[in-house]
Amino acid sequence: MNLPSRVRPGSAVRGAGVALACLSPSLSGRARAVVASYAAGWPLGHPGLQLLVIAPDQDEEPWKRAVYPFASSGTSWTLLMLGAVSVVRRSVLPAPVAAVLLGGLVAVGDSALIEVWERVKARAAEAAAARDANASAAGAESPA
Question: Domain residues of the chain, as ranges?
Answer without folding.
Answer: 9-111
